[in-house]
Amino acid sequence: MASTAPDASQDQESIKNSSIKFRSVKTLAESPELTSIPSSYTFTTNPDDELVTDPDDDDPIPVIDYSLLFIGTPDQRAKTIRDIGRACEQWGFFMLINHCVPKSLMEKLVDQVFAFFNLKEEEKQEYAGSKNVTDPIRYGTSFNPSMDKVKFWRDFIKIIVHPEFHSPDKPPGFRDTCAEYCRKTRKLGRELLKGISESLGLEADYIDRTMNLDHGLQMIAANLYSPCPQPELAMGMPPHSDHGLLNLLIQNGVCGLQVLHNNRWINVTSTPNCFVVLVSDHLEIVSNGKYKSVVHRAVVSNKATRISVATVVAPSMDTVVEPASELIDNETNPAAYVGMRHKDYMELQRTNHLYGKSVLNQVKLMGVTDMLISPHGAQLTNMFLMERNSSVMELYPKGWLKLAGVGQYVYRWIASWSGMNHEGSWRDPNGDHCPYPEDDRRCMPLFKNGRIGYDEKHFADWSRRVLADITTRKIHQASTINTTLPPSTAHCACN
Known about the structure:
Elements: H1 8-16, H2 25-29, E1 52-53, E2 63-65, H3 74-90, E3 93-97, H4 103-117, H5 121-124, E4 137-141, E5 155-162, H6 174-199, H7 206-210, E6 218-225, E7 237-240, E8 246-251, E9 257-261, E10 264-268, E11 275-279, H8 281-286, E12 296-298, E13 306-313, E14 320-321, E15 340-341, H9 342-350, H10 358-366, E16 371-375, E17 391-396, H11 400-403, H12 410-418, E18 421-427, H13 444-449, H14 456-483
Parallel strand pairs: 1-10, 2-3, 16-17, 17-18
Antiparallel strand pairs: 3-11, 4-5, 5-6, 6-13, 7-12, 8-11, 8-13, 9-10, 9-12, 14-15
Protein name: Fe2OG dioxygenase domain-containing protein
Region (Disordered): 37-57
Domain Fe2OG dioxygenase: 215-315
């Protein structure tokens, strides 16, 4: 009989009885008995969305010569800045050549990362276990196992290297190599952002200054994609975009990166001495949507181990990232994204399922949302993204009034603190049946996870009333703005 994946229950029991906090993909892939992947790693794709191609000669991946920003003629520099802007707008990424990071240093870092993943599992797991996005060093697997419905064929180590430098103590030489590489890529990222600022028509130091990059977050995310016996069923990382401004990516010569361009997945080759520069979510926000963070994914192979090292160049953790005021016009180009602290954005990403631009779209949507109807607690985070005077209504499951205690008033408290309008509640009288008395605490999980019905007439009447109030309020606000505008400068006596 053919061997299959190790039994999951036995695996969990062995982990429980050891210092190992989780089983890495590397350990699983190296199991002699492994011939098929566990069902928890099976990633289902939509065949209609699976058009994968190599780059088209008529629409090639943009290549930017970094050196022309500094040693080129004025015309060459101006053209390079235009090319960067075009790449950010049309592709969301580009290949960077002739940069300031030595090829030998790039290769040395990849070797050190490989050496880290080859340490004994007990040594690596000294850095495992935390879910805090601000922890200086985190070793883990998948993306967020507590949230992932499907596990991803990937192990990682994430290291915060700025504003304070951190590094694992092992393997020997890792710290020194990482420190030198991070200094080089930090300078590279900041110089690129100056060119990107200019391409948006902003001052060269605009992004650097407003994103507080002197104290900005820089993170190294090193990924190990072990050989997979069924690569057609697994996914290294699902389609996603990154937090931060830029992601500077290098690879070990093994392909696996794919980017979404014009509804096709484009294979991106692993080119020596070349950075793949990915536009990230916060740059899309700063540009008010002109530049697009790129959706990308990592596929796996049954033959080779792939390593990628991403350098995240990001705002300081306390910076509120919002569209550049110089790019906004309330009439023709209003702000498309609500301002949000970088740290809060990272936490929102951690607590959401990773797929596409789910978090960025959430921030974009809630910035223009006037009314939220939500099961109690289900959309609590979104209230922090909505504007003052927005409206919220709650749907309570059966039994909540008796069992939830003061927690049932959290929406009212947040609405009061944030200047929102709490427009009432509706309690489902016909929820799932509980075999115990309805005030028994054992009913709480059943009511909490059960279905919530709705009263069509109640919601229709409520929505009609609230939308009418919103319309009236906006008309009043518009008339107030018009009557308080300063007189035209054409009739102004200038001193």
